[in-house]
Write a structure and sequence with these properties.
Bound molecules: zinc ion
Keywords: Metal-binding, Oxidoreductase, Zinc
Order of helices and strands: HEEEHEEEEHEEEHEHEHEHEHEHEHEHE
Distance between the termini: 19 Å
Radius of gyration: 21 Å
CATH superfamily of the largest domain: Medium-chain alcohol dehydrogenases, catalytic domain
Helix content: 25-40%
GO molecular function, one term: zinc ion binding
InterPro entries: ADH-like_C (IPR013149), ADH-like_N (IPR013154), ADH_Zn_CS (IPR002328), GroES-like_sf (IPR011032), NAD(P)-bd_dom_sf (IPR036291), Zn_alcohol_dh (IPR050129)
Number of domains: 2
Largest sheet: 7 strands, mixed
Number of strands: 18
Oligomer: single chain
CATH architecture of the largest domain: Alpha-Beta Complex
Cofactor: Zn(2+)
Family: Belongs to the zinc-containing alcohol dehydrogenase family.
Length: 377
């Protein structure tokens, strides 16, 4: 194994050969999307080799996300992936650094890291002008490049963030969805005393509720639809203002519970287009609606009302890089609270079963273990 720093390609090749001989075969089994239709396959693929500036990581925890479920079902929104298949899924992952090629930038083998799954291209006009967050040729592990549902992955050293003390691999694997939620809460501008409504009780909705509470919102109400398991998770996280709309619609369910008061900030984390218009009824004048779901269809909006109420609608997706250290800090201090979000832990070879559990909402957050770590370490 190497300790980083510049060295010849020959030395590096020798180090890799040594790593491989320690690990074994140059193949591994990964959970891949192979065709633009329903399903995934657990199949043998070549083990990745780090290029200069990359780390080789042994993945010990990888979260199953709603995105993975959409891609598994092929239910719309990810058609751009079709020409890139086969592709290993998974974008929420953490593990141990095995090797670093080229400049290690302080990253040592053995470090537990959370990996930022998306990387700017470095060569487009945005990247060259220093606005890498707006890069239009961004590569994203799990959707446009091979992801974390595999025992090993390579990632740019600059995308590997060392987990702080007290943060283990499964908590580090939560970092990615937590950054999405933290960014949504920052976009919404939640401040002390706000009344917050979160529509969608999944991982993102749960984490938005947690970060809204950490931002000292006075009230956080979470809405779901026939979702007993995820409501159970929310109760474990300390949320009791829960509204199950059952088989009815959002407007009727909320109207029966909240008559006069309106919400300052509403978060949409369902991916159901109709929810966007329905939720505006419950937004106060000049309130903010943050749309975080991935919507397979267009929504229709009453723009006259939007204008008269001076409502703000803000879209949010992945978080910029500066949100990651903030989230890792919150995991270091509130990790045990966040751990309640994890409802299932399974080995990677049960990945198809895991996707089915998530798809049928019999699980909230599932953590897959591509490589089973020794619990004592
Ligand atoms: Zn995700
Ligand atoms: Zn770029």
């Amino acid at each position: 194994m190497c300790r980083g720093g510049d060295r010849s390609a020959r030395t590096h090749a020798l180090a890799l050969a040594l790593t491989r001989s320690l690990i074994g075969s140059s193949f591994m089994k990964a959970l891949q999307k192979t065709a633009p239709s329903f399903g995934v396959e657990f199949r043998e693929v070549p083990r990745p080799v780090p290029r200069p500036g990359e780390a080789l990581i042994e993945i010990t925890a990888a979260g199953v996300c709603g995105t993975d479920v959409h891609i598994f079902e092929w239910s719309g929104g990810y058609e751009f992936m079709a020409p890139l298949l086969p592709l290993t899924l998974g974008h929420e992952f953490a593990g141990r650094v095995i090797d670093v090629a080229g400049d290690a930038n302080g990253l040592a083998p053995g470090a537990l890291v959370a990996v930022i799954p998306s990387a700017p291209c470095g060569s487009c006009a945005h990247c060259l002008s220093g606005a890498a967050e707006s890069c239009e040729r961004r590569s994203a592990k799990g959707t446009s490049a091979d992801g974390g549902f595999a025992p090993w992955i390579t990632a740019p050293v600059v995308n590997c963030l060392e987990a702080p003390n007290g943060v283990d691999d499964e908590l580090a694997a939560l970092a990615e969805p937590l950054t999405v939620a933290q960014e949504a809460v920052l976009k919404g501008g939640v401040t002390r005393g706000d009344r917050v409504l979160v529509i969608g009780p999944g991982t993102i909705g749960q984490a938005i509720a947690l970060y809204a509470r950490m931002a000292e919102a006075a009230e956080v109400v979470v809405v779901g639809k026939n979702d007993p398991l995820r409501f159970e998770t929310l109760r474990a996280l300390g949320f009791w203002d829960l509204v199950d709309i059952g088989d009815g619609d959002l407007e009727t369910a909320l109207a029966s519970r909240f008559t006069s008061q309106k919400f300052d900030i509403i978060f949409e984390a369902t991916g159901v287009p109709e929810v966007v218009q329905q939720s505006l009824t419950f937004l106060r004048k000049e309130g903010v609606l943050v749309v975080a779901g991935i919507h397979p269809r267009r929504a229709s909006l009453d723009l006259t009302r939007l204008v008269r109420e001076r409502h703000q609608i803000r879209g949010t997706q992945r978080a910029p890089r500066n949100v990651w250290p903030r989230v890792l800090d919150s995991l270091a201090t509130e990790g045990e609270r966040f751990r309640h979000m994890i409802t299932h832990r399974m080995s990677l070879d049960r990945g198809v079963e895991a996707l089915e559990l998530a798809r049928t909402r019999r699980a909230s957050k599932i953590i897959l273990s591509p490589v089973v770590r020794k619990r004592s370490s």
